[in-house]
Every structure is written in C-alpha cells, then in structure tokens.
Design brief:
74% helix, mainly alpha, single chain
Length: 190
C-alpha cells in the first residue's frame, strides 16, 4: 500500500485560518470579526489570510461551505428513512461539531450566514425530499419541515446545550426524531 504523502504546509495554514475564522465568526459575528483577529488566533500574518482567501467575504464563504454528505435513500425502505437521516445528522454533528456549530451561530446572527444556511439545506435536503415524497410539488415544504427538526435539535443539543436535549442518549434522539422526519418526508399530505 503506497504511503500517504505528508500534508503540505499550506494545507495546515488553511486549516488553521478556517478554524480561527469559524471561532471568530461564531463568537463575534461577521461585522465585528476582523482579519487581524483571525490571523492572530491562527498565529500567522494577516497577509496570509488575504493570500489564501482574498477578502473577509471570501473567507466567510469558505467557512460556510458545508457538505452535509446526505445518504442516498433510493434503496432505503420508507419506514427507515427517519432513522437513517437522524443517525446521519447526529454523526455529522458529532464529527464536525465546531464547523457546524459555527455555521448555526453565524446563521442566527448574520443575514448572509442565514442565507447560506438556507441554501445548504435547500440544495442538499431538497433532493432527499424528492426521493421520498409522495407528491413532488410538496418536496420543498417537506424539506423545510425536515430541516426545522434537524436544525432545531442541533441548536438545542449542540449550541444552546439545553440540558434535557443535550443529555439524551443517541438512541433516544433517534427514537424521538425519526418518526417525525419519516412523517414529514413520506406521509400523505395532512
């Protein structure tokens, strides 16, 4: 098996910039975040931030570039759709906690962040709704309802850390949310 090449220094620098930017945008909001503060936190010169991302807007776009890596539900029985999606989202949040928490915080505090969060869920969850929805015209509404559950739980569990939501075992979260997601995506129109 061939050896994996060592990471390039530029990859490490980009990673440090993105990590610092996520933290700053999440805690300070877009308007109050400065390139200098990000560079200081990343322990680099501010010119390096500009070199890699061009501007504060370019860096903001890079921070908000999130792939939800949603599973293909084509072969999943409709009764299992909710379980598969809730497990997927819990894993995604637990593996990418900092990036997704920053995305939520920025989405709540900044209009551009809110638009980006809307785009992510529209572009990535809508195809899932189209795969499972009995009426294609209802897919956007159903995707929005599913997003409300997923984002709501993530916000309560990982951002606000509301004790009852944060204390739930994974299996309990799945048991509570899966039937709701399944209903939103697969049930006949009420």
């Amino acid at each position: 098996m061939p050896e994996k090449p060592p990471p390039r220094r530029s990859d490490a620098t980009r990673g440090a910039i993105l990590a610092a930017a996520r933290e700053r945008f999440a805690s300070d909001g877009y308007e109050r975040t400065t390139i200098r503060a990000i560079a200081r936190e990343a322990r680099i010169d501010p010119s390096m931030v500009m070199r890699y991302y061009g501007s504060k807007e370019g860096l903001f776009d890079a921070v908000l570039d999130v792939d939800l890596r949603l599973p293909d539900l084509g072969g999943v029985p409709l009764n299992d759709v909710g379980v598969v999606l809730v497990n997927h989202f819990l894993t995604l949040w637990e593996e990418n906690h900092d990036a997704l928490t920053a995305l939520l915080r920025v989405g709540v505090t900044n209009p551009a962040g809110a638009r980006r969060l809307q785009e992510i869920f529209r572009d990535q969850l809508l195809p899932v709704a189209r795969q499972t929805c009995p009426d294609p015209e209802q897919a956007p509404t159903r995707a929005g309802l599913a997003a409300s559950q997923v984002v709501g739980m993530a916000f309560a569990r990982y951002v606000l850390k509301i004790p009852p939501a944060a204390a739930l075992a994974r299996e309990e979260v799945v048991a509570w949310l899966a039937p709701t997601l399944r209903r939103y995506l697969t049930a006949p129109h009420p």
